Amino acid sequence: MRKISFSHLLVSLLLLILHYSSEATSASNEGFLRIGLKKIKYDQNSRFKALLESKKGEFLGSSVGKHNQWGNNLEESKNADIVPLKNYLDAQYYGEIGIGTPPQKFTVIFDTGSSNLWVPSAKCIFSLACFFHAKYQSGRSSTYKRNGTSAAIQYGSGAISGFFSYDNVQVGDVIVRNQELIEATSMSTMTFMAAKFDGILGLGFQEIATGGAVPVWYNMVKQKLVKEQVFSFWLNRNAEEKEGGELVFGGVDPKHFKGQHTYVPVTDKGYWQFDIGDILIGGETTKYCAGGCSAIADSGTSLLAGPSNIVVSINRAIGAAAVAHPECKAIVSQYGRAIMDLLLAKAQPEKICSKIGVCTFDETHDVSLKIENVVSDKDGRSSGGFSEAMCSACEMAVLWIQDELKQNKTQEDIIENVNELCDRGLNQDETLVDCGRISQMPNVSFTIGDRLFELTSKDYILKVGEGSAAQCISGFIPFDIPPPRGPLWILGDVFMGPYHTVFDFGKARVGFAEAA
């Protein structure tokens, strides 16, 4: 037997170590910074809590058109913040960061729809929600720097307030130095006590950052912590797998997608906003956005939200059911035949509600009048209600009547059918579908750039519960964002799951490709 010298053994061992070492660091050699994402099952109770909050006017059209967190009139500024519209109660994907030296661990939503970093503060002692989450203790960090400026953010389903501080932030294997963050000393109990996350790390543009704070991503670029000015999301929609997905800073992992990305330019910095074209249901054009619509890619939203009048029609096409609301009945009773006459006279559908005096027209679409309307729960004649609800109901009625006219029905049949739709509701509350019909539901497609991006029923239906207790919920929700920011489509995880999404900061563009 030949003897193996100690030096040969040492060299072999060294080569073996180098081999495995190179494999372990291959991700960093690519110039990528990878953040593993955790996935939480969709929580129906959380969604219903969000809807309850929205009824209080913190979330949908009637209130968000008035003021942002700094008290400025949204209608006076094109760059006004729509962060107040955000609802994190149904968010599903989270990751971990560290703040301070040594790092204190926090679970955060990496949110492309906002731009601030905030976590609960150790100084949060009067908000019950803070006791259910990790809290940042500045006194235990050797890199903490005081700022002290007050900060407050009003979200769709809650609010946080506190003050700014500076500290190092660990994202994956890199340290972002001297990062501005908000220490939250007050958090809405209902929203954040039930939340699975501690805080938010915003990945939007600085233009929408509260207090003008420099976002974490900007500092990652400025401090040369990433190879390319790009980050990308791969969200794992397979409910059976534990891996939630991956956020890659500094590039794009080819294992996360198939084919080529379709890129579109960012049209309005703040959110990752871009233009979309026509929307198809079952391969048939709807012409809803034939003249162009705006959308944002939002990793902090689980569902896919859009203007009420359009989403209601999509939910109608897929067989979603909800509760009725009196404004719809009132519109049909008072204006149904006038709407039919105007449609038959070839009036532009988007101007009809302004022609009959329910909405005003801002050169692109109808918007609600700033007066009160009166609606009856019984006969549509008189009770309380605001014009935003009447305007939305009118827009829905126009679309429904337009669809009915295409089928050459009599006016009496059309009125009867539209009234029935009002009774079924299809409003912004529960949009439940028959789980047994999922395979029969039509595909819904969005035109982005020169390509159609198709969502199958498996993509846009969320199943909650198991067996006979299972319920199936439409992933399309009405979400009215007022001008100047709106109307907008919010493409959340329902869209970003099937389509790998690239946020190209350097070239100010967003890209989509089929997820692997």
TrEMBL record:
Keyword Metal-binding: no
Chain segments annotated as coiled-coil in the UniProt record: none
Superkingdom of source: Eukaryota
GO molecular function list: aspartic-type endopeptidase activity
Any single Pfam family the record assigns to this protein: SapB_1
Range of residues in the leader sequence: 1-24
Gene3D superfamilies referenced in this protein's UniProt entry, alphabetically: Acid Proteases, Saposin-like
GO biological-process terms attached to the record: lipid metabolic process; proteolysis
Stored CDD domains: phytepsin (cd06098)
Domain Peptidase A1: 93-513
Keyword terms: Aspartyl protease, Disulfide bond, Glycoprotein, Hydrolase, Protease, Signal, Zymogen
Domain Saposin B-type residue range list: 323-363, 387-428
Bridged cysteine pairs (disulfide): 124-130, 435-472
Family membership noted in the UniProt record: Belongs to the peptidase A1 family.
Protein name in the entry: Aspartic proteinase
Species assigned in the record: Cucumis sativus
